[in-house]
Amino acid sequence: MLRLLCVTAHPDDEAGAFGGTLLLYHDRGVETSVLCLTAGTAARNRGTARTNQELATMRRGEFRASCKMLGVTHAEVLDYPDGRLDRSDFHAVTGDLVRHTRQLRPHVMLTFGMDGGLTGHPDHAMAGVLATMAFQWARRADRYPEQIEAGLRPHRAQKLYHLATRFTKADFPTIAPPTVTAQLEVGEERFQKKIEAFMQHTTQAPLFDRLKKNIRNREPVEVFHLVGTAEPREAKPENDLFEGVVDD
Question: How many angstroms separate the CA atoms of 226 and 238, rounded?
Fold first, then answer.
């Protein structure tokens, strides 16, 4: 079975940023996994939560519900500090992602670009940096050799994509987005289900109207930038992230 791993920063990223793509590949029989680096406790929108612990518990539950709607096979929220990923222990977080990559053994990996996505969020940017290094280092036995000694094998994912965009918005920070190399036609039905999955994040209800407006004013397309491949190759436009991938 082909396998896809998506690395995000916050609960709700999996739906708002990658939801259509996760649904598309689930429907095509691909095993999909999402690793979310934080529990989202720095969010302005907190629902009924009175403490960060309550909010973390609520957001983890919302994440599980969203991922179930998106057909995600393996969904996990890690415990890194929301709003402070740029001050986290780079070696430790990357090692955690390397370990998960060696366990899940994806053929294709997805994450944010180092622009931080459309919102320019620093945590999104750092998720992209950390996941990109995990893509590179999971294949090397000299990186985190203690994992190899414990029984894991190096893993060479065949492709890595960063989220791209074809537009920017004046009310978000200025970004320099990656160029579009892959365009996925995910369809109106999946875009609607992407909205429904985002709405499982009930603590974020103040964002619902904005998300609906943004998505409904766009074509049902998600776009990406091919960052790395298992073997050298020439750049070319794609409409399938698994193009050229060999099932092992």
Answer: 9
> Which residue ranges form the domains of the chain, and what is each CATH number?
3-229 (3.40.50.10320)
User: Secondary structure of the chain in the HEC alphabet?
Assistant: CCEEEEEECCCCHHHHCCHHHHHHHHHCCCEEEEEEEECCCCCCCCCCCCCHHHHHHHHHHHHHHHHHHCCCCEEEEEEECCCCHHHCCHHHHHHHHHHHHHHHCCCEEEECCCCCCCCCCHHHHHHHHHHHHHHHHCCCCCCCHHHHHCCCCCCCCCEEEEECCCCCCCCCCCCCCCCCCEEEECCHHHHHHHHHHHCCCHHHHHHHHHHHHHHHCCCCEEEEEEEEECCCCCCCCECCCCCCCCCC
pLDDT tens series, the chain, 248 aa:
999 999 999 999 999 999 999 999 999 999 999 999 999 999 999 999 999 999 999 999 999 999 999 999 999 999 999 999 999 999 999 999 999 999 999 999 999 999 999 899 999 999 999 999 999 999 999 999 999 999 999 999 999 999 999 988 888 888 999 999 999 999 999 999 999 999 999 999 999 988 887 777 789 999 999 999 999 999 999 999 999 999 97
Q: Count the alpha carbons within 13 Å of 70 in the hemisphere toward its beta carbon.
A: 37
